[in-house]
Design brief:
globular, about 40% helix
Length: about 375
């Protein structure tokens, strides 16, 4: 169901520009897809209310993938063949994104994924861009912090899906460069409900810290299991739990957990001279006005995708090839997930400065300074 706020929208003489959207609105990854869907529709409504793009209305066609790669492929084929969209934003997950890349590459339709896996844009694919920060950048942010804390022996516990496998690869690949030794390397399944067996091994390993890489609900279970087992070493999470939902699921066990995140969940704590400050506050305030809850890290990926498309269409028109070429020229766009600069060699567009570290204190996110 599309959520609109069409009252006061001007009349449009020219046909609309159709934008496709693939999000995990239902299913286990709904905590990603629902705010992404809501944000994309909010931005489209705002653009249309202001007169559209060069006098043309945007028409957002949303398909729920349910976090199922097969449904994502069905959806992308419908968007391209039946709806004839000019560009597509989403999907929400790395697995869904990887599944549809061959389809958009063959059809020549620009895609801006909202998922984090580095493989989505590395190596570069001609028609594929992304807004979610790469997991390699998140790893670097955590490892820098561990260096400052003089922590060198760690355990990792990663979920065995696309996001977790990609994070695990990056954690292993970058450890040596930061002088980090991984002395325990455990995994869990996406549907597992108890990780005490893996954590008991980790406790015996002598690790100085634990890094868990996954998306809800698994990391919240890990947090509770660690508290139940009385493990006292620091626990770090990935940006895959950077939303209010994680704190709700983990409860008191979330206290003290540190993770890399986009700035949006600590927007009010960001310095006034930060180039993203204006966009962050605009998004947070608009989302709260429309949906009565705070905008989050994941909705921010959709905000960035829609605004990048808006800029490309304003400059180059609505033909897919022109949109793609213009996206690749994006330079210093200060959005929600960071400041984007795409190029022919880089369709991810961000550096590790796109992340800040946040810590859960008193059931709220706090900026680590």
């Amino acid at each position: 169901m599309l959520i609109g706020m069409m009252a006061g929208t001007p009349a449009f003489a020219a046909p609309p520009i159709k934008i496709g959207a693939l999000f995990s609105v239902s299913g286990p990854a709904a905590f990603l897809g629902e705010p992404e869907r809501n944000t994309a529709q909010m931005v489209v409504d705002e653009i249309n209310k202001a007169g559209g793009i060069k006098g043309r209305k945007l028409d957002l066609v949303v398909i729920d993938t349910q976090g199922d790669p097969a449904k994502a492929v069905q959806g992308v084929n419908k968007l391209i063949k039946d709806d004839k969209v000019a560009a597509i934003i989403g999907p929400s997950t790395t697995g869904d994104s990887m599944a549809i890349i061959p389809v958009v590459e063959k059809a020549g339709i620009p895609l801006i994924s909202c998922a984090a896996g580095i493989k989505i844009t590395d190596p570069v694919k001609k028609w594929v861009f992304k807004t979610a920060q790469n997991d390699a950048l998140a790893v670097a942010k955590i490892y820098e912090h561990l260096n400052k804390q003089k922590i060198s022996k760690i355990a990792i516990l990663t979920v065995s899906d696309g996001f977790g496998s990609s994070g695990r690869e990056q954690l292993v690949a970058h450890a040596k460069a930061f002088g980090i030794t991984i002395i325990s390397n455990e995994t869990y399944g996406p549907k597992d409900t108890d990780m005490t067996a893996q954590l008991t091994k980790i406790r015996a390993s002598g690790a100085q810290a634990v890094i868990c890489w996954g998306t809800n609900p698994g990391p919240a279970i890990v947090a509770r299991n660690i508290k139940q087992l009385g493990i006292k070493v620091p626990l770090f999470m990935s940006h895959g739990v950077s939303s209010r939902k994680f704190i709700e699921l983990a409860g008191n066990a979330a206290e003290g957990i540190i993770l890399p995140s986009g700035r949006v969940i600590v927007a009010s704590q960001i310095p006034k001279n930060d180039p993203q400050k204006k966009a962050l506050l605009s998004y947070v305030n608009s989302y709260k006005k429309v949906y009565k809850v705070e905008g989050d890290h994941f909705g921010g990926h959709a905000w960035d995708a829609m605004m990048l498309l808006k800029g490309a269409i304003e400059k180059a028109g609505d033909q897919p090839s022109a949109i793609r070429d213009q996206l690749e020229k994006t330079s210093k766009f200060a959005g929600i997930g960071g400041t984007f600069s795409y190029s022919a060699q880089d369709h991810a567009g961000l550096t590790k400065d796109a992340f800040v570290l946040v810590e859960v204190k008193n059931q709220n996110w706090n900026l680590v300074k």
